[in-house]
Every structure is written in structure tokens, then in C-alpha cells.
Amino acid sequence: MRDYQGREVPELEVEGGSMIIVLLGPPGCGKGTQAQKLMEAMKIPQISTGDMLRKALKDGTSLGLEAKKYMESGQLVPDSLVINIMKDRIKSSDCSDGFILDGFPRSIPQAEALDRMLKEVGKKIDIAINFDVPEDELILRISGRRSCPKCGAMYHIKFSPPKTDGICDKCGERLYQRADDNETTVKNRLKVYNDQTAPLIDYYSKAGILKNIAAGGGTPDSVFEKVKDLLGFGK
């Protein structure tokens, strides 16, 4: 089985059926990693607005060029841009049995727009999971990330460094730090999160679908065990 980006997805059976899951938490909390693990376990697509926007940027599309100035300064991409690409995405056939949202919604207006989109197709969010990580740990996690421009491999200078400093293990290309991963921009991204995205925690709490997971200091696998326990599968 392959997802919409052509990535291989293992055929694993999971109890509980299809679900629409929203993953919340600040930049660097591990939402993307947990979304990938859930996608592989539940056989439903991970929808990451960050990935979609970065692909548009790499491909040089009009959306990518418009989003570039916001992404590189750590600002949120305007709701109108994000909502338009999301509306088309959730209507795709591979979303019919549920999906995992990673990085959307990022504001109350986006959350309200998502509720309207889902209502139009007779669906609703089943659960919103918030990953809580201390801010100093988030800054260390993000500012230490390094990427390979050729094969896309990801590293961290402290937690998962390459065998040779600054060089990709897989293809030998020199690694780089994304423009939005430097410490100054990271601090700005966290401020934007606290101002505009953190209110979603209260929004979904009032809706009765919010669950919190303490994700600081844990490995991706240990955090995923908490996610599985929360969703009631994999025991």
C-alpha cells in the first residue's frame, strides 16, 4: 500500500477502525514522527501542511512562492492559503477511512474552517492529541536538526548525528540547516505558537475531544506507546 506521496505504508491491522485525529503541540514536539507512526499502524494518511507547503516551495509553485516569505521568518502561512489546499486534500479518496492531521489547524479560524469542511462531508474529529514538551527542550530539538538536500535524510547534532560531521551517511551530500530551524527563528516560531496556536488546546478541550501526553524527555517509541494506550490499540 502507498500513500498519496508514493511512500510505502505497511499493511498492519489495528483495532478501533477509522478515525480522524488532530495532533497538537509546539514546533519540535514530535508531531510529525508520531503522525508517521500512526499512519503506518492505522493505514490512514498523514496530512502535513508543512510537508505540502515545502513541496510547493521546492516545486516553485505560486503557492510555494507566496508561502516562502512567511515560512522562512517563522510566521504562520495565512489561513486562506492553507485552508484552500486542505479542503482539496481531505476530499481525496485515500481519506475516506480517516486521516491524521499534523500541523493543521494552527489557529482558531482554521479549526472552525476544518469543522465546516468535515460537516459538509458528514464527518467530525474523533480526538485531538496535545504533545506537551518544555520550551528549552524544544529549542534544543529544533535548532540541532540538519537535513540532506539530496536524499532528504534527517539528523540531529546531539540526538542522531551523522557518522561524519556535516555529511549525510546515505549519499555523502553536505547537510544543511533549514532557514526556519535557526535558534532565533525557533524562538519566534514558539512565540507565534503561544499566541495563535496554543488557544486550540482550549478549543478542543471545550469540545470534549482533547487528550494530553507528556512528551518531554521521552524517545519517539516511548511516546508512541502512550499514544497507542490513549487510542486503545496495540496492547
Gist of the model:
By secondary structure, this protein is α/β, with parallel strands linked by helices.
Explain the overall architecture.
The chain is of the alpha/beta class. The protein has a single domain (20-142, 187-231), classed as Rossmann fold. Helix content is 43%, strand content 12%. The chain contains 9 helices and 7 strands, in the order E-H-E-H-H-H-E-H-E-H-E-E-H-H-E-H. It has helices spanning 31-42, 49-59, 62-71, 79-90, 108-120, 135-143, 183-197, 199-206, 220-231; strands at 20-24, 46-48, 99-102, 127-132, 145-147, 154-156, 210-214. The protein has a 5-stranded parallel beta sheet with strand order 2-3-1-4-7, with helices on both faces. The protein is globular and about 50 Å long.
List keywords for this structure.
two-stranded antiparallel sheet; alpha/beta; 235 residues; 43% helix; Rossmann fold; globular; 9 helices; 7 strands
List the helices and strands and how they pair.
Layout: E1 20-24, H1 31-42, E2 46-48, H2 49-59, H3 62-71, H4 79-90, E3 99-102, H5 108-120, E4 127-132, H6 135-143, E5 145-147, E6 154-156, H7 183-197, H8 199-206, E7 210-214, H9 220-231
Parallel strand pairs: 1-3, 1-4, 2-3, 4-7
Antiparallel strand pairs: 5-6
Helix pairs in contact: 1-9, 2-3, 4-5, 6-7
